Amino acid sequence: MQPVDKYLKLPRHLLPPAPDAYLVGGAVRDLALGRQPADYDVAVPGDAQRFARFLADRAGGGRVVELGREAFALYRVVSATGVWIDITPLQQNDLETDLHTRDFTINALACRLDSGEIIDPLAGMKDLQRRMVRMVSAANLQNDPVRLLRAHRLAAVLDFQIAPATDRAIHRYAHLIRNAAGERIWTELQSMLDCPTAADRVRAMADDGLLTALLPELTPLRDCGPDRHHAYDALTHTLKAFKALEELLFKPAQQLPPAAADFVAGLAPPARHALQLAMLLHDIGKPDSRAKGPDGAYHYHGHAASGAQLADSVLRRLRAPNRIRNAACFLIRHHQRPLHLFLNYSTRAEGRFFRVCGAQTPSILLHAIADTMGKKPPPTPAQDPLQAFLSDRLTHYVTEIQHRRREPPLLTGRDLIDHFGLKPSARFAQLLDAVEEARLAGQLRDKPSALRWMKALLNNQH
Ligand SMILES: Nc1ccn([C@@H]2O[C@H](COP(=O)(O)OP(=O)(O)OP(=O)(O)O)[C@@H](O)[C@H]2O)c(=O)n1
User: Fold this and answer.
1) Which superkingdom is the protein from (predicted)?
2) Cis peptide before 377 (omega within 30 of 0)
3) Torsion angle of alpha carbons 169, 170, 173, 175, nearest 10°?
4) Mean pLDDT (whole number) for 133-162
5) Cα 379 to middle of ligand 1, angstroms
6) Which of 113, 122, 210, 305 measures 20 to 30 Å from 12, CA to CA?
7) In whole angstroms, what separates CA 289 from the centre of its chain?
8) Residue 387's domain spans which residues?
9) Nearest Cα residue to 36 out of 44, 45, 27
């Protein structure tokens, strides 16, 4: 933390001589911590629109955009340099009242724009020093239940702890999270998933009950208990696997061979989010009948297809973007394929695996590696042939298969008609998939060999 006690050094674009205008909330918190604020919120008594115009003029011709009205008035000043400053009227025209309506003490800070003086009625600066997320009041959490999740998100982003009384309040009011709008939940969840410490927060959410309140579909996993095949209940396994995935995603060089590590380091956030959500939800769904224990009770994992279906409705409820939802559901549906490939390996089966999983192959393999690491005792690649197999497949995919996939197919439907006199039918797709699988498996490299191979296949089928 920077040596701020009573005064904060404000950025230049916030320095008009404006008595009674305050920088408030997260920007004050971030500046005090020496972090770059994502945005700036300014609260003023009285006419927020007039102040916004005044600030825009001072900023050398910035634009003012009206985003809210009346009780929720909000004017966004977009400066010529692209900085956003949101102007709102102070709650009840009073700074102290305004700060007391906020979520956490570290966000209930204000800084006078004219002097840089910090106003801190709830000892938020002390909590910044202690690295604590502390509620302003339990009533404020009840009034806006998305704050329950914000507590964990802020703790993840800032690497803070949640104060014990706040944690107890989260436990008490966890059920209220169901009343929060999906869009707001997604915003918080997404920013939590971007943190390399999200797994510890997700575990803390499991402990204080917020996780199952948010995702009741995880409750059967917690309640099934360990069985003779699994040392953990399925929720504990999920949390351990989620943590293992985080290590793979955020410290790939320590976990994977170089080529695979480079690939993982370059994964775009939506691909990472899909993988993280798939891991969290991979064992939900109708219990898999193959997982029935000797006592007749269902244990452990959900059936992958029904899990994918259920995950689809969970992710719709959370308003995850379509692209992330579809990718996560695909991963859940196919997450057991790497294990099946390991148990029934053939070159042909591997070609099929690469064809079916397509561009999601690396994610499915990463999922499988983390899933295995979430079991007890967590194996290392050196000890465990499955781990070594998965890691080898990942390297093979990123160094070879992904390039091979971009090449045009060796045969088309036209070839089946011209060379073999076949009539177009549903069988075409199967035949062309078979050629593609053989090509991905490295068995076919050019068109003449593909034609010979097809001829043999057709002869065999007759
Ligand atoms: N549910 C909420 C959301 C926001 N706030 C208040 O509004 C401020 C701005 O909110 P937002 O921009 O969403 O979050 P930040 O705290 O600024 O955090 P970040 O910049 O990391 O998004 C917060 O600091 C907090 O004072 C609140 O009390 N309750």
Assistant:
1) Bacteria
2) yes
3) -160
4) 97
5) 41
6) 122
7) 30
8) 218-292+300-405
9) 27
- Indicate the number of domains in the chain: 4
Quote the ligand 1 centre to 40 CA distance (angstroms): 10
Residue closest via CA to ligand 1's atom 7 equals 25
Look up the pTM and report it: 0.90
Helices marked H in 282-321 — which ranges? 304-317
Residue ending a domain, among 115, 130, 145, is 130
> ∠ CA(295), CA(300), CA(305), 5° rounding?
120
**Ligand 1, pocket-test mutation among 24, 101, 103, 104, most atoms within 8 A of CB:** 103
Q: Which of 385, 405, 425 is the last residue of a domain?
A: 405
> Both 209 and 250 in a single domain?
no
Atom in ligand 1 nearest the alpha carbon of residue 144: 1
3-state secondary structure 380-396: CCCCCHHHHHHHHHHHH
Question: How far, in Å, from the CA of 25 to the mean position of ligand 1?
Answer: 6
Could you write out the DSSP letters of every residue in 71-121? GG-EEEEE-TT--EEEEEEPGGG-HHHHHHTSSBGGGS-EEETTT-BEE-T
- How far is the CA of 24 from the CAs of 82, 227, 404, in angstroms? 20, 52, 54
Rounded Cα–Cα distance for residues 371 and 335 (Å): 9
Q: What is the pLDDT of residues 254-263, one digit of tens each?
A: 999 999 999 9
Residue with tokens 């029935």: 292
Interval 71-111: pLDDT, tens: 678 999 887 777 788 999 998 889 999 999 999 999 999 99
Q: Which residue has 């702890």 as its token pair?
A: 161
Q: Is 439 in the pocket of ligand 1 (CB under 6 A)?
A: no
Pocket flag, ligand 1, residue 287 (CB < 6 Å) = no
Query: Is the Cβ atom of 144 under 6 angstroms away from ligand 1?
Result: yes
Is the distance from CB of 62 to CB of 72 less than 8 angstroms? no
